[in-house]
User: Fold DHH family phosphoesterase from Hymenobacter amundsenii.
Amino acid sequence: MSTIAELKELLAQPRQIFITTHHKPDADALGSSLGLAGYLRKKGHHVTVVTPSDYPDFLAWMPGNEGVVVYDPRRNDAQVRAIINEAEVLFCLDFSCLNRISELGEYVRAAAGTKVLVDHHQEPEDFAQLDFSNPKAAATAELIFEIIRDLGDQDLIDTGIGECLYAGIMTDTGSFRHPSTSRNVHLIIAELLSAGINLSDVHRRIYDSHSEERLRFLGFVLKDKLTVLREYNTAYIAITADELRQYHSKTGDTEGLVNFALSIEGIVFAAILIDRKQAIKISFRSVGGFSVSEFSRRHFSGGGHHNAAGGISHEPLDKTVTRFLELLPEYQSQLVAAPLAAAHP
Ligand code: 5GP
Ligand code: MN
Assistant:
């Protein structure tokens, strides 16, 4: 863990700053990036936010969204490489290994500027000169708030920056219900309220802005695609590329679906496996002592948090599902015996 004094020195003069975050940014990824960008611009820095892929429309309201460069290897590779190479400071937010930012990973690794990692995932890769990763934090946006505060600049957090940070904390805590929702989280929210954020507006923009099609897709998934395996306290959903096409699924439309599987009484482990064509993308969730980050790291080249993780498979969907099912007996005792009270470590 680096010190705030080191960061203060790095930012003591106006800098060319590059900020990036993980593939398919969620509200914490984009909210922490745009919250930090808004603050750094107020301090006189020149800031560019680059995302490794597109992200859902329900995040587009965030102030600074219009200036985000969405990396596309066929369209703006040279432009993005130039931004990375010219950056004096590279902030890497809400991801712990460079392979989470696809092609950008190697560009960032080779960049000459000072790399600053701000993240809350387990087992961070050692690639940054300044490291503010803390797996105990509920969200990267929580860490960004603390960094701005500790730099002595909390008064620069205006409504726009505050709403970006609030969005990240709200979504990564599952609307303040996961065990990561600490006293510190609530104290920070109180400070953001003092900065004038409108929390019901943020909630509505993120959770109540679905298309009719997305809701019909949800109906289809819950009715036809959900499998419950009582003997393992497990439920999973597998979605084919054809089904995504049939429902005109857009980026973000599958977000949160896995939580429906986990919301069934008695279920402690949930998975959603989605055929994204280039690969099968998997999201895992758990309640209690079963570590999905460990499971995902071990079997699906992934990682994340104790109760929320993701991974990938390069086999076809049906083979991936079979492999997932074949792993369950090995974990049966943990899944069945694990008392819910033994929650987060
Ligand atoms: P989600 O299932 O919502 O995509 O991700 C859950 C958590 O796991 C997030 O914190 C996300 O950053 C992390 N995660 C998702 N996919 C991967 C992956 O392929 N590798 C790693 N290391 N982490 C992932
Ligand atoms: Mn996060």
